[in-house]
Amino acid sequence: MGLYAIGDLHLHFQTDIKVRGQTKGVWRDHERKFKNSCERLITDEDTLVLVGDHSWGKNFSECEEDFAYIEALPGRKILIRGNHDMFWDAKKTSELNERYQGRLLFLQNNYYSYEDYAIVGTKGFTFEGPFYLNRRGQIVGWDEEKEEHAEKLISREADRLRLSFEAAKADGFRKYIMFLHYPPTNIMEKESEFTKIAKEYFAEQVIYAHSHGEMRFHDSLEGIIDGVNYSLVSGDYLKWIPKKIL
Ligand SMILES: [Fe+2]
Ligand SMILES: [Fe+2]
Fold first, then answer.
1. 87: closest CA among 108, 64, 105?
2. Is 0.90 topped by the overall pTM?
3. Taking residues 221-236, what's their average pLDDT?
4. How far does the centroid of ligand 1 lie from the alpha carbon of residue 50, in Å?
């Protein structure tokens, strides 16, 4: 049995791509590359966590083929909400779980078990600027209004993350793997609400995505920090090979 993760598939079987460059290089034919690596690595005994930004579709009907593709992948599939997942309103998680019962699992305010671990998580959020740079490329300031707005979103997502941990804890779980779509910290931070929660509950690992494009691969925490192992699993970073978590 294995636990695997990857994020940012940005499927577009029925819609246009919204980001330049997602047809070239590592993104060329990425659906086929990813499907092949899943079929090589993952069996139906395994669990695959898809860490957000699943589809460019704006609603259920525009996502149908993308979901059919995900459903056909091997293993048990758990999905986290990404910022581009327009089909997934924050209040729609139970509706999604009913709609895809027995086929896909949607994680928000709840948790799923994997052996004696609880898989917990939420979309998360982090302040992404704009940052103002000097001629040497050093950060000398940022948009404070946007930062203030980001703090509200971070606090709401931190509450959702706590609900996920508490649901698992109430059922007796003491070992956690924590998933976020957004990186746990912004490019200036060493800690955040999310890293504090990870430490408080003794999460063994924090897995996140969202940072794609080479320029952003090292925007946040990586490796073991304060006893928590941080990993980026965006699809282009992993070259469409899901990362083995456990
Ligand atoms: Fe993305
Ligand atoms: Fe994203």
1. 64
2. yes
3. 98
4. 12
